[in-house]
Amino acid sequence: MSGTLLSTGVRYHNLPQNYIRPQSQRPQLSQVVSQPVPLIDLGGSEDEILRQIDEACRSFRCFQVINHGILPETMRKVTEIAREFFHLPIEEKMKYYSDDPLKKMRLSTSSNIRKEKVHNWRDYLRLHCHPLEEFVNDWPSTPSSFKDVVSTYCKEVRELGLKLLGVISESLGLEREYIEKVLLGDEQGQHMAINYYPPCPEPDLTYGLPAHTDPNTLTILLLDHQVPGLQVLKDGKWIAVDPHPNALTVNIGDQLQALSNGKYKSLWHRAIVNSNEERISVASFICPANDAVIAPAKKLTSEETPAIYRSFTYDEYYRRFWSRNLDEENCLDLFK
Ligand SMILES: O=C(O)CCC(=O)C(=O)O
Ligand SMILES: [Fe+2]
Questions:
Q1: Residue 165 in contact with residue 156, Cβ under 8 Å?
Q2: How many whole angstroms from 298 Cα to the centroid of ligand 1?
Q3: pLDDT tens per residue across span 156-190
Q4: Which ligand is nearest to the CA of 126?
Q5: Torsion angle of alpha carbons 187, 188, 189, 195, nearest 10°?
Q6: Of 1, 104, 128, 262, which sits with the fewest C-beta atoms within 10 Å of its C-beta?
Q7: Is the C-beta atom of 195 inside 6 A of ligand 1?
């Protein structure tokens, strides 16, 4: 079974039936609120950064960072190369197509086309990015600068991700190296999803991505500040994210929720689509090493707050995650 890519250049006038959500599962866009997502200046004092990250992780489960060390030019180039890729002729793109979620480089559509009943208005290119030398040769060779541009960004984003994990470790009251050690340091994986959401004829009836939490540790999102679409759940309400230009948005994933024994929770988020403009987002997923053993940190458990989750390897978690449909129950609930 093969899904149909949406990025064909053909403009749809009606939403095909298999993208239409039942009434009760639609995005209800009129109920979405706007509220600024915390913006943290990584050029500030360490104490202040630690305090702000702790506060944001508890209340919002996500935050934006500026002065993060990645040049605006690098970010712009990644978005542009992504746009060029999705504008390639369909025959060229189909060389990279696969429905197999465990493949290390693939172009696909929707989310988990083999499992889901209703599709999502998204195409995506998924890449494994670390260790780079192991994967980069298999990445798309068109556009010709794709490998160069995306590799540069991946390396820089990894540095940022690992630095943030150090700060988060401390903000949880653990040693700075605690998370890095548990996740097995340099063996930690890194994946990327380059998401392409074409204009959608009936954005009220479907999603780019339905509500989900990310299965990994930390996600760093490069968002288009001119075409919004990311929404995050806070206190039962969906908030439309209005990204600060040049900022990157950082989300807590399931592994941080497990590791912190629920002190920090993974972010429920979704992508909505619009009828006028294509939208691109680039998600970098920092993941534990496959054989890393994840369990609530001892220091964060006590008689009053016993471990909520059993221990598991990331490999086990990741397989379980992809054996489901994206909008089923939270995968972490299966590891209690
Ligand atoms: O497109 C977005 O804003 C969100 C993407 C996302 O959540 C994902 O790729 O997991
Ligand atoms: Fe996500």
A1: no
A2: 32
A3: 999 999 999 999 999 999 999 999 999 988 999 99
A4: 1
A5: -160
A6: 1
A7: yes
